[in-house]
Amino acid sequence: MRESKKFAFDVSITFIASIISTMLGFCITILLGRYLGANSLGLYRMSSTLLWIITLVAAIGIPAAIVKYAAEVKGDREKLSQVISSGVLTSLISGIIFIATFYFLSGVFAQIFKMPELSFLLRILAFVFPFTLLSGILLAMFNGLREMKKYNIATIFQSFLLIFFTLVLFKFGFGVNGAVAAIVFSAIGDCALLMWFSRRHFVLTLKNYLSMTKKLTTFGFQIFGATIINQINYQADTIFIGYFLTAAHVGQYAVAVGLSRFFWLIPNAIQTITYPATSEYWIEDNQKALQKMIDKSMKYSTCLLFPIGIGVGVFAQDIIVFIFGDGFIDAVLPLKILIIGTIIQGSTIRVIGSSLAGVGRPDISLKLVLVSATINIVLNALLIPYYGIIGAAFTTTCSLLLNTVLGLFFIMKILGVNLDLKWNVKMGAITTIMLFLLYMLPESFICKICILTGYVLLIFIILLTKEDRSYFLELVRDTHSFLKKS
Question: Is the model's pLDDT at 1 over the cut of 50?
Answer without folding.
Answer: no
